[in-house]
Amino acid sequence: MKKFKRIRDKITLHPMMAFIFLSAFVILLSGILDVFDASVTYNKVNIKTGNYQPTLVTVESLLNLSGIKYIFSNTVSNFVSFAPLSMLLITLIGIGIMDKSGFLDTLFFVLTKKMPKTAVTYVFSLICVLATIAGDLSFIILIPLAALLFKYGKRNPEVGIILAFASISLGNGINLFISSTDSSLITITESAARIITTGYKVNTFCYLFIMVAATLIGCAIITYITEKIIAPKMGKYEETEEIVTDKEKLTKREWRGLLFALTGAVIYLVVFIYNIIPFVPLGGNLIDYSQARYIDKLFGYDSFFNHGFVFVVTFLFFLVGLLYAFGIKSINNHRDICNYLSHSLDEIGKVIILIFFASMFISLLKYTNIGSLITASISNIIPSIKFGGIPLIILIMILTMITTIFQPGYVARWSIMSSTVVPQMMTAGFTPEFAQLVFSASSSIIYGLTPVMAYFVIYISYMEKYDKDGVSVIKCIRHQIPYAISILGMWILLLIVWYIVGIPLGISTLPTI
């Protein structure tokens, strides 16, 4: 067994090499598909006219002159503009000062000292699911915090990373609150539904009831898998630095620091919350009133939070970390502040290089249109399906999961698939809301299993940071498979029960027409 493990470790690719080989494969595949003139025409719903618009998808080769120019001209710019990179670096500044000052150690001690491990896991999973209302920023914030939460709780930080990534991936298909992505999907769904029913309108709270069930059950499933499968398999974590102490209670300085930090956080949050409440005196200054839905007022394309939310969160972390440090009197001069700020950026070089190769792979795949080609090809299969009911639900789930592997972005993929999925399911007696739910649920199952997803590299980077034996793309995916299989089973059961019994999905919304 040990011999097999040594052989496996030797042939296991480092994530950097994996992304290099994936990039080379995309380049080669694009050239082959271009030789055979691979293309697909699909019907896309024009949101303005409400009619079908034939759209041609062709493969862009990376082996011709234009493709080679693109590789050399855009690789650097794509890396610089790669959202996970900038978001991670900025957020780590705030997390670094919270960690270095001791605020996180103290906060986690207070919050978890009387809670069973299972309860901590469940609550954190629930936080991760709910945090997806802020979009993909939740990957950047909660994965490093999960590692520190488990480390300070004398548990393996890798377990926390795996838990956070699985929960956030699940949360992209399950949430009690509508997110900006959900809002975009609803707009596309309405356009597709109007092919069958003129003027169809989707209720904002159309998924409230089933989402409550999915959130509570999903987090329980994730907690069980984490505690019974992942944690025993990962084993104990041997800390190289003895920074975790066996304290029984907080000192007076720590209580003072916590009081300073939490007071500053409350004041900061009250000011911002007041400024996102519309139509109040001197408030509501940070929302975009040109949007119809409240979530779009907050996170719409031109909103303040869409452009500034990363810094809003980072400044909050900076504030509480700094106030805590002042409270315990651990900062003597401005140099101490600078050292605190750079704490989380120490030894970040390997992460940046890994992100570079991941950004190259993702940008090359996007340029070739291979993901869109596969999605459109599968979408064109759907109108030929001749059955309905439960078999149709399961088949749509399978096709959606396949497309997620190659094109994980929800909005871009739904803009292609909705023109066939929604009319097909409406013809079979399902509501457009149920069709969108099947799509979102199926996507969330595979979302954490594909390296094409931009934030998968953040997951790998932190696993690489804490795994003493080294990680690989396959190894990281393998950790997520038990979650994916279990959540798939949960969603199949929920969707079938809701469909057969006829339970409302949400307010004034049923599974069937």
Q: Which blocks of ≥5 consecutive residues have pLDDT under 50?
A: none
- Helix and strand pattern: HHEEHHHHHHHHHHHHHHHHHHH
Please count the beta strands (DSSP E, at least 2 residues each): 2
Bin the strand percentage: under 5%
User: Could you state the oligomeric state of the chains shown?
Assistant: single chain
Structural class: mainly alpha
Q: State Rg.
A: 24 Å
Mean pLDDT score: 88
Structural shape: globular
Biggest pleated-sheet summary: 2 strands, antiparallel
Helix coverage percent of residues? Answer: 55-70%
Q: Report strand order across the widest sheet.
A: 1-2
Total domains, how many? 1
Distance between the termini: 57 Å
Number of DSSP helices?
A: 21
Architecture overview:
The protein is mainly α. It has one domain (2-501). Helices cover 68% and strands 3% of the residues. The chain has helices spanning 2-11, 15-35, 65-80, 83-101, 103-112, 117-131, 137-152, 157-171, 180-193, 208-234, 252-274, 294-299, 304-328, 334-341, 349-368, 370-381, 389-406, 410-427, 432-447, 456-466, 473-501; strands spanning 39-45, 52-58. Strands 1-2 form a two-stranded antiparallel ribbon. Helix 8 (157-171) packs antiparallel against helix 20. The longest helix has 29 residues, at 473-501. It is globular. The mean pLDDT is 88.
Task: Please specify the SSE layout and strand pairing.
Layout: H1 2-11, H2 15-35, E1 39-45, E2 52-58, H3 65-80, H4 83-101, H5 103-112, H6 117-131, H7 137-152, H8 157-171, H9 180-193, H10 208-234, H11 252-274, H12 294-299, H13 304-328, H14 334-341, H15 349-368, H16 370-381, H17 389-406, H18 410-427, H19 432-447, H20 456-466, H21 473-501
Antiparallel strand pairs: 1-2
Helix pairs in contact: 2-15, 3-15, 4-7, 4-13, 6-8, 6-10, 7-8, 8-10, 8-20, 8-21, 9-18, 10-21, 11-13, 15-20, 16-17, 16-18, 17-18, 17-19, 18-19, 19-21
